[in-house]
User: What shape does this take?
Amino acid sequence: MIAKTVPSVFRIGIDFETLEYLGIDPGVVEETYKPIQKHIKPLQDWAGKIHDELLTEKIDYVQHKRIEIDSILAAVKNNARFWEFILDKLEEKFPTRNYNRAIDIPEYVIPDCVVELNDIVREKATYILKEERSRMQIGFSNNRGFLDVTKYDKSIPDHFKNIIEEDDTIKSLLRRIDGIARYEQN
Assistant: This one.
């Protein structure tokens, strides 16, 4: 159905080449069956038009026998080998690939020392804000009516930043970081 609708679609199917690749004797996996004539007729017409003897032999074969993928998988007893075949066919048809969507090439990475510095600041700031954060959580836990949440979403970070920047235990560290930042900007 897809081949009719989109003739350019690449198809990987079970054929004699597949059996040869996987080292399977067709007699081991083939089944006798009677196909619907409307499935065979177009193939016969096509083979007649291009006068291909090998194709005519294959069409004669499918008039009486079929090979199902389940039979192939059972005979291979090795899904990895079967997928190797699929990948080989895909690589043959599409020899180059663009991995830019699959592999993330970051614009930058943060050096370990900066991550460590950030962890130190986070740890110290969390300790400094612990009591104020707890006090605020208690204050917001049982309110009557409705609050303007966006107002608090904007004001709390500024409030916390002021507390951190004014704390004596972290002031000297922040001054050194600020000195490095200002030096690098110039």
